[in-house]
Write a structure and sequence with these properties.
CATH class of the largest domain: Mainly Alpha
Strand content: under 5%
CATH superfamily of the largest domain: Tetratricopeptide repeat domain
Shape: flat
Keywords: Membrane, Transmembrane, Transmembrane helix
Protein name: Tetratricopeptide repeat protein
Number of domains: 2
CATH architecture of the largest domain: Alpha Horseshoe
Number of strands: 0
Oligomer: single chain
Order of helices and strands: HHHHHHHHHHHH
Structural class: mainly alpha
Number of helices: 12
């Protein structure tokens, strides 16, 4: 399974997929959080290697392809695709180890290290809005694209600050930063019990966008009483 995943990543980045496969791949990026995070890590590593070792990386890939082609003359046609996949799986494994090494060397905090969200449990307190159950379930199963769609169907008059907080988190997960931050800023400006959570997620939004200066400014004002204070301090130490 891992080999197939890395092979798919390599095909996508190399623009070697047909339109149907490419559409299916991009659909999976939206629906599968693990697949999306793995691809983002692979993509960043791919770019790093391309920048730092472009000649060596290209030669390595070409060598693997050549090996696969040479095996073609000795194997029947039913063996060609598995052999080609096998060698690209080897390449993907090498890149993965490079990825682990590279990110271990970097001390910069990463969004994926801190996006463990609390479950949403607001439907029992919001009777009469049926779509909330769909939004809640989608959020809790990390189907954030679907969750955003459900939240959008809830009239603004029926969205309290708790609902808006989870709506903002879902938006943040699908990289709709401007919309997410608009909701979070409104919560931050109020005096509800979600004020500190809004500050925390505004900081995470900036972290995900690699706007480290803004992230630092936001997390520095998070009070010690906040649930996420210790995690905020950890990020600040790394920044």
């Amino acid at each position: 399974m891992q080999e197939e995943m890395y092979f798919a990543f390599e095909q996508y980045l190399g623009n070697e997929m047909n339109l149907e496969d490419r559409a299916a791949f991009e659909k999976k990026l939206l629906e599968d959080t693990y697949w999306k995070e793995s691809f983002e890590l692979y993509q960043q590593t791919h770019q790093f290697l391309k920048t730092k070792f472009s000649g060596e990386t290209a030669a390595f890939k070409q060598n693997l392809k050549q090996i696969a082609l040479e095996n073609q003359s000795n194997k029947n046609s039913s063996k060609i695709v598995p052999m080609y996949s096998k060698w690209f799986a080897v390449a993907a494994t090498v890149v993965l180890f490079c990825s682990i090494w590279f990110f271990m060397q970097s001390n910069e905090p990463k969004y994926v290290e801190y996006n463990q969200h609390e479950k949403a449990y607001f439907t029992a307190r919001s009777e009469g809005v049926a779509i909330l159950k769909e939004a809640q379930d989608a959020f809790n199963t990390k189907a954030y694209e679907s969750a955003v769609g459900y939240f959008e169907q809830i009239p603004q008059a029926n969205r309290n600050e708790e609902i808006n907080l989870y709506y903002a988190i879902a938006l943040l997960e699908v990289n709709k930063f401007e919309q997410a931050e608009t909701l979070l800023q409104a919560i931050k400006s109020g005096n509800s019990v979600y004020k500190e959570k809004a500050i925390w997620y505004l900081g995470l939004s900036k972290l995900k966008q690699k706007d480290y200066s803004s992230c630092k400014q936001l997390l520095e004002v998070l009070p010690e009483s906040a649930d996420d204070y210790n995690k905020a301090q950890e990020i600040l130490e790394k920044l």
